[in-house]
């Protein structure tokens, strides 16, 4: 198998190291040459938490997040630059862009979407868990034809009361208007969290998109 890279972006107030056990579920031989990265967001004041400082990729103005919640577009674009730097570093190390996957939960899922759409090349895929669309249609002019070819997996719990299911449901139609296909999976009874069923599906989804030669 060729070398591959999986970048995992955590949710608000969480940390990268706290999410590292996720990689233990990926036991298939295809992942023997996979490098994982679990970065932590910087500490920033967060509006929805009364300005309290915590790990946050960008600002969130209200909880629950709905399909119509206001968006911190400047903050998301700054965070995207940091994610792109991580991807560029991996490309420089010799990883084929088709074997680079960005995944994220909640705020990290929103950042995942922004990062893969705004990256100028086609990546292996972007996987969004309990996320939302963190920008408006004005972003369209910055999306390259190559970025539109990056596969998208979107998973969301129907019982989510933090990032409402409707916020997740708004994702695929947004992407379709851009000419981007998306696999959307709804999980009945799942609140604002990730379960093993989602992660096992992620493993098989990444396996189908991995390139065997670099």
From TrEMBL:
<protein>
    <recommendedName>
        <fullName>Phospholipase/carboxylesterase/thioesterase domain-containing protein</fullName>
    </recommendedName>
</protein>
<feature type="domain" description="Phospholipase/carboxylesterase/thioesterase">
    <location>
        <begin position="3"/>
        <end position="209"/>
    </location>
</feature>
<keyword id="KW-0276">Fatty acid metabolism</keyword>
<dbReference type="GO" id="GO:0008474">
    <property type="term" value="F:palmitoyl-(protein) hydrolase activity"/>
</dbReference>
<dbReference type="GO" id="GO:0005737">
    <property type="term" value="C:cytoplasm"/>
</dbReference>
<dbReference type="InterPro" id="IPR029058">
    <property type="entry name" value="AB_hydrolase_fold"/>
</dbReference>
<keyword id="KW-0443">Lipid metabolism</keyword>
<dbReference type="GO" id="GO:0006631">
    <property type="term" value="P:fatty acid metabolic process"/>
</dbReference>
<keyword id="KW-0378">Hydrolase</keyword>
<dbReference type="InterPro" id="IPR050565">
    <property type="entry name" value="LYPA1-2/EST-like"/>
</dbReference>
<dbReference type="Pfam" id="PF02230">
    <property type="entry name" value="Abhydrolase_2"/>
</dbReference>
<dbReference type="GO" id="GO:0052689">
    <property type="term" value="F:carboxylic ester hydrolase activity"/>
</dbReference>
<dbReference type="InterPro" id="IPR003140">
    <property type="entry name" value="PLipase/COase/thioEstase"/>
</dbReference>
<comment type="similarity">
    <text>Belongs to the AB hydrolase superfamily. AB hydrolase 2 family.</text>
</comment>
């Amino acid at each position: 198998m060729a070398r591959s890279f999986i970048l995992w972006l955590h949710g608000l107030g969480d940390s990268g190291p706290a999410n590292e056990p996720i990689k233990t579920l990926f036991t298939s031989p295809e992942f023997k040459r996979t490098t994982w990265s679990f970065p932590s967001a910087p500490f920033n004041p967060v509006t929805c938490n009364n300005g309290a400082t915590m790990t946050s990729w960008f600002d969130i103005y209200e909880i629950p997040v709905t399909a119509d919640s206001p968006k911190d577009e400047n903050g998301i674009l700054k965070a995207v630059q940091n994610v792109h730097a991580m991807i560029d570093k991996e490309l420089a190390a010799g990883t084929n862009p088709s074997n680079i996957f960005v995944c994220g939960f909640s705020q990290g899922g929103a950042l995942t979407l922004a990062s893969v759409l705004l990256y100028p090349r086609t990546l292996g895929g972007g996987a969004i868990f309990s996320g939302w669309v963190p920008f408006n249609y004005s972003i369209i002019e910055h999306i390259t034809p190559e970025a539109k070819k990056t596969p998208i997996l979107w998973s969301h719990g129907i019982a989510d009361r933090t990032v409402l299911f409707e916020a997740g449901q708004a994702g695929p139609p947004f992407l379709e208007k851009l000419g981007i296909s998306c696999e959307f999976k709804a999980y009945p009874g799942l609140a604002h969290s990730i379960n093993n069923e989602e992660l096992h599906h992620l493993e098989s989804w990444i396996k189908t998109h991995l390139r065997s030669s670099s």
